[in-house]
Amino acid sequence: MKLLVTGGAGFIGSHLTRRLLAAGHDVLVFDKLTYAGPRATLAEFESQPAFQFQQADITAAEAVRQALANFQPTAVFHLAAETHVDRSIAGPAPFIHTNVVGTYTLLSECLTYYQTLPPSDQATFRFLHVSTDEVYGSLEPSAAPFTESSPYHPNSPYSASKASADHLVRAWHHTYGLPVLITNGSNNYGPYQHPEKLVPVAILAAYHEQPIPIYGDGQQRRDWIYVEDHAAALQLILEKGRSGETYHVGGNSERANLTLVQRICRIMDEQHPRLGGGSYLDLIQHVEDRPGHDSRYAMNFCKLERELGWVPEHALEEALSRTIHWYLDHREWWQALLPTENAS
Ligand code: NAD
């Protein structure tokens, strides 16, 4: 297949790209290369003939149109987004622009492209939109995990912008007949995640012998999924998912943030013992909570298991250990993304 991947220089998009190339597909990564999408992440693909890259913005209709016309994709994976909740609180405008207007622009251009395809290509065309569990808002401690029919209740500018995008995608299916798939995934971790996100923040603060910040009491619960499991699910949903449907993708690994960070500290104690002795646990420092912080997300992904036979393959502790090993082994990648005082 010829697969266009928006946001392919980002964390999940780069793992998906690696997987699609390994499966023998042609891939065009369409990415603006924001602070979250470093060119270095794409370096390993650049010599592969099946890989193409276009640096462009999903809000630029003409650039999207040209990419579709020139590459003639069989399907589109849409991952490009502004993704960091804290940044969305400090400055929501880019989140509305990229996540809402950008998704609208892509939908609009993909529909025009789809309408020009012969019926046999229309039958296989898919627009797969990658979204998040955060669109559902916060779960009570004893509540059952979110299902695909849970009501939307986004609480942050980030989750509200993703929820808006999900609604647009669904509308383009129901109103115009664009064959879409929507996935709502839980919290990802793994190699190539930007150092501003919780797991790398904890690893790199420990590495630098700096305080490891934990919002509030650290009892916010998240379901954690290894990024390679998420990429595998996206590929399977594109190939076998039913057009117009939403699929949840979860990791079956719900943990409190504090528990997760403590686990990271213990693995760091084994992989990279502190020079002065003692445990990295001593560096954990509680800081003022994020405004409007959701207390719990959890995903019911039985539909994906029942319909497509997917389950996550990686256990949290083993994959977390592998992730920490990767960060310790790839300093040059994350150093380039850190504020200069930490780039050592
Ligand atoms: P990321 O922040 O690591 O990467 C985002 C990518 O999008 C970057 O390469 C960036 O350059 C690109 N981009 C941003 N704005 C763009 C624009 N206007 N035009 C073109 N490219 C642009 O994000 P991620 O963590 O890999 O997430 C990918 C997708 O998966 C997002 O849609 C996100 O909402 C969703 N998601 C993420 C998680 C998670 O835990 N990381 C969980 C569920 C869903």
Descriptive key words:
binds nicotinamide-adenine-dinucleotide, 3-stranded mixed beta sheet, 344 residues
Overall pLDDT: 97
Residue stretches low in confidence (pLDDT < 50, at least 5 long) are none
- Bound ligand species: nicotinamide-adenine-dinucleotide
Question: Main beta sheet: strand number and arrangement?
Answer: 7 strands, parallel
Number of strands: 12
Helix content: 40-55%
Structural class: alpha/beta
Q: Which radius of gyration do the C-alpha atoms yield?
A: 20 Å
| Count of alpha and pi helical runs | 12
Q: Strand portion, in percent?
A: 15-25%
How many angstroms separate the termini?
A: 42 Å
Order of strands, widest sheet: 3-2-1-4-5-6-10
- Helix and strand string, N-terminal first? EHEEHEHHHEHEEHEEHEEHEHHH
Shape, please?
globular
Layout of secondary structure:
Elements (H helix, E strand, L loop, with lengths): L1 E5 L4 H12 L3 E6 L19 E5 L5 H11 L3 E4 L6 H6 L2 H24 L2 H6 L1 E7 L24 H20 L3 E6 L1 E3 L8 H10 L4 E4 L5 E6 H14 L5 E4 L4 E3 H15 L12 E4 L14 H7 L7 H14 L1 H5 L9
Parallel strand pairs: 1-2, 1-4, 2-3, 4-5, 5-6, 6-10, 7-9, 8-12
Antiparallel strand pairs: 9-11
Helix pairs in contact: 1-8, 2-4, 4-6, 7-9, 9-11
The structure holds nicotinamide-adenine-dinucleotide (NAD).
Nicotinamide-adenine-dinucleotide binds next to helix 1, helix 4, strand 5 and strand 7.
